[in-house]
Design goal:
The protein has about 260 residues and is α/β, with parallel strands linked by helices. About 35% of the residues lie in helices and about 20% in strands.
Length: about 260
């Protein structure tokens, strides 16, 4: 059996009870933290909290040569864990399909994600979000400014009145995390007076939510990572009230449908 376990958003306590049980009863536990990691916990913290030993794999050891993971699942109970949810944003469907092709039973233990937190913390309704996008560091996409893939997603969603979730680039290996202020500065060149919402440290004891024009958010600091941005579309009056009350959005920027 190969069980995919999402570890949640922030620290060793963010996993569900079902996920905790899977970690504690597995014969072997594998994990990857190259796409994201829990900012509030080390691997050692997770191991101590769940009384298990975690074998951390790099990208090649998951995506190119996962033989030891699959063999462990053939021989007993194996867990593959990631921050967030293993099948949302950081998706490992390929590993699950490889297991199924070898006749290995699989299951998924879900956990909170940045996507669900963005809706829950801001008060924006989940079903009113359109296509999400990721804003990369300039050096990561080899060009200046904001890639067309990002602006196209924002523009298409705004035309339909939908919200856009903008994931901000992270380079775990270099311990580098794009800040919301840097992202707002990049986007302000195209959307300077457009309302945006910062979500910082979702899942932690001290999450932050702040709404203002992108040009204003670019001048503010939002503390420790992880950060993300939301570009709202048309707002239901309850969403507008939520952004005003929970995020301090200026009334003149609240576009109520």
């Amino acid at each position: 059996m190969l069980t995919f376990v999402g570890l949640g958003l922030y620290d060793e306590r963010s996993v569900t009870v079902e996920g905790q049980h899977a970690l504690r009863t597995a014969d072997r536990v594998f994990a990857e933290f190259y796409t994201s990691k829990l900012l509030g916990a080390t691997v050692e913290d997770i191991e101590a909290a769940h009384d298990t030993e975690i074998e951390v794999r790099d990208r090649a050891g998951v995506e190119q040569d996962p033989e030891d993971i699959l063999q462990a699942a053939e021989e007993g109970e194996a867990v593959f864990a990631t921050a967030g949810d293993t099948m949302i944003s950081t998706t490992h469907v390929d590993l699950r399909l490889r297991a199924e092709e070898r006749g290995i039973d699989t299951r998924v233990v879900h956990a909170p994600t940045a996507e669900s937190a963005a809706s829950g913390l801001t008060g924006l309704q989940n079903y009113r979000f359109g296509k999400a996008t990721t804003l990369p560091f300039d050096y990561a996409h080899g060009a200046d400014g904001v890639p067309a893939s990002v602006t196209n997603a924002i523009d298409e969603n705004r035309e339909r009145g939908l919200h856009t979730l903008v994931y901000l680039d992270i380079k775990v290996r270099n311990d580098e995390y794009m800040t919301a202020s840097h992202a707002a500065d990049l986007l302000a060149e195209e959307y300077g007076d457009v309302l945006a919402v910062v979500v910082a440290r979702a899942g932690s004891p001290n999450p932050l939510v702040a709404a203002d024009a992108l040009s204003e958010l670019a001048e503010r600091a939002f503390g420790d990572p992880l950060h993300l941005l939301v570009i709202p579309g048309d707002l239901h009056h309850i969403e507008a009230d939520a952004l005003s009350t929970l995020a301090g959005a200026p009334d003149e920027l609240l576009n109520v449908e």
